[in-house]
What does this fold into?
Amino acid sequence: MVAAPVFPSSPPPSSVNGTRPHIVAFLQDDLGWYDAFANLTDIQSAAVGSASANLQALAADGILLLRHYTHWHCSPSRRAFLTGRTPLHHGEQLSDTTTDDIDLRWTTIGQKLDRAGYACHYYGKGHTGYMSMKHLPVFQGFSAGMAGFLHGAMGYTEPNRWSGDRPERNRKYSVRLYGDRALAAVAQHDPRTPLFMFLPWQAVHEPCAPATPNPRRRRPSARALFQIASVRAHLFRPPGRPTRFLCTRRPRIPRRPASVSQAPTRVIPRAPPRLLRPHAADEAPPGYNRSLTACAAWESEDRCVLYAMYRETDLYMGKVVDALRTKNMYDQTLILFASDNGGNNEGNNYPLRGAKRTNWEGGIRTPAFITGGLVPRELRGTASQVTLSIADWYPTFCNLAGIDPTDDPPVAPLAVDEAQDPSGPLLDIWGQESYPGVDGLDIWPILMNPQAHGHGSAHEVRGRLMVLHLVCISHPALPTDPRRHPSPARSLHQGGARHLRTFWQVLFISNEVIIHGGRYKLIVAQPSPEVLEGGPGGGDVFGWKQPNQSWIPDPVQKSCMRPWDPRVPASPCLYDVRADPDERVNLALQHPDKVEKLWRILNVSLLHRFHARSPPGLLGACNTNCSRAHWRSFGEGTVGPICGVPGCPAEAVPAAPSKLRATWGGLHLGKGHALQAR
It folds into this structure.
């Protein structure tokens, strides 16, 4: 099985001063690189500084994590944080409210810390799949306090919230609801008990809606509801079904001449083209004061609303820190801040390329930092260039708490059969008895000793290789010519044992992007065209978004990673993201051997994929109709788990086991132990 190697590490703080640290993790939704780190670029932004004053102060008093990687959209990143597994082992799909995407045999980070005596709290967005009542955060270790919502997107004052194990009808603006619950929890907490608090904000995800209420319109407009329904239709569509975005018009984007060899050095004060997207500025009420956001005159109202939402979370982060100081807890606290993926729509990832839902750096390299009293004074105000994964926080938090960071199965998986017939079904090595262990690594010793680790990858210690590898779920990742581009099975046959030994030294996250040694990044495909070009993002997401919200397109390298377009040959791209962080120079032709080697290793990952298959005994009795009626009794539109629901017996005919919805190369996980071709 693919298991994270164990390396000697420095003693965690808990073993140094005898006290287990408090841990607070803020996860922003869809926050762009420029929107967090504009002060690190050549073009400053008064609006960003105004909206994130507390964040900037906290980051300046901690360690910036300049190469922190996630998945290119929401759910896989959140599942990786909670389980310590990369998306290779739980899929790239967006979680529906009633899907089994976190295997109930796994121990989440909440359960790990809860069993170690931590008081664990969860306030904010879920979106990780809740097929069973046991999937709810309150049963995943966050028993000290839980308030949030289970969807991927909803209105900021929509009442379908959850509190503990039951729905809560509450129209309070979401940032204020979750922030106030967090403040109350800190105020009531006994400092002698270690605290773990997870705050995954809803902001700045669409739809945009500021916190200031509109006295003349208490309910969203019909148009806004229609647009929200369009977003949901995209998030929760059946596999393989294209999305028709409602109320969406895509005017032609004016393209001004620009050199792609270097980024512009100044902002051109020109308003960006107006796009109608599934989050409209119509939601901004008359009482909303745009001047509070320090918006420039040319910035769209949507962009200003995003600043207002961002400012709300920033204010509450400052309040939480003040509350920790009031309770004399701050000096023993580690604070993590990160985004679940890159910026989208009105978000901005300058100078990085691309946006959310792309495999460019702008989609997967997210703003992050650690701060708090636990960070040594001599390291405050520094920046780390070590390549990290969001899955690394699971073992890091465990080791800081002085507990076992592993979560291995009771039964080892089957060995990969190199002699299997490539034309037949591929073997599922996990079966029903085994499952993958934790993929992440404890990165605390690396962050605490930057001189010894330099600018490489946290996963390349002692010759080990970390591959950050993020995948599309809706089209083949490989070209059709097997003579030039090996298939997974062909890689096994041609690579032989030597190639397989190389694989065992590689830790995967998915199967379209790998980053070798924190430097060379191979991309074999981008997400499907319905996400890239038919979605709400607008602009040319293959290019570079500028601080003035205009896009510089890429007319040269657009043929790379477009296997769905029959007019252009599908070919991989290789970038040196250390020397070329903007991904402007494709090195694939200069280094064909490196491309071939990395692509072969990437292909083998298919044989180790896994999707949750929680045993029926853990799921509980499943009854779709009864559970829906039960949750509707709490209010119209309320949805929840379908298994283990109180008062709902098992259905007469049990539902078929769920299939692996994150398809790859036309393959999906069928019944039994085989990956069947369809």
Notes: Residues 575 and 585 are 7 Å apart (CA to CA). The mean pLDDT is 76. The two ends are 26 Å apart (CA to CA).
